[in-house]
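Lab manual, section 2.4: Encoding a predicted structure.

Procedure: take the sequence of the chain (173 residues), apply the prediction step described in section 2.3, and record the output as structure tokens. A sample record is shown.
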Amino acid sequence: MDFMILFVGFLQMGLTYWIPDFATLPFLRIMRALRSLQVVVEALLNTMKNNVIDIIVLLLLIMFIFGVLGHYLFAADKTSHSYADWGTLGDSFMTLFIYVCADGWTPYQEKLNEDGFSASELYTAFFIFIGNFIIANMFIGVICQNIDDATRTDMEEQARKRRKQDLSKGNYS
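Recorded output:
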């Protein structure tokens, strides 16, 4: 990636020197933005490598606890409507994953209500609060923080390179 950025930079310098009209080529202007894209991609990869695994393990632990609890609370009767959603630990995990995404969870809650589980609304609301609002936002926050840190580090590195170039040229301002 660094080679590509350097190559395009030298290409732009050469083209603008020999043919001034090439200075306005849009694709060469876009290629200058690749440095910021590279910073974002590196930040995302570092985030995945360092922090996201911890958050995923935390989410899986919480899902395991709630999955076992949901299985014992809602799958006691094999003839109930909600048994298909809570009958095994795998079914419980799938239902809880839908709760974490907070998309399409209402049919599962309606089945629990039809089966007479009045406390299921508290269980569902509590898990959606923890899984969706806390863990998912923690995930997003970690990504944003790492992108911000990577951008700041890159800006400091670029400033250091400019100072070094200025010193090597004899510009001591």
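Check your result against the sample. The CA atoms of residues 81 and 106 lie 14 Å apart.
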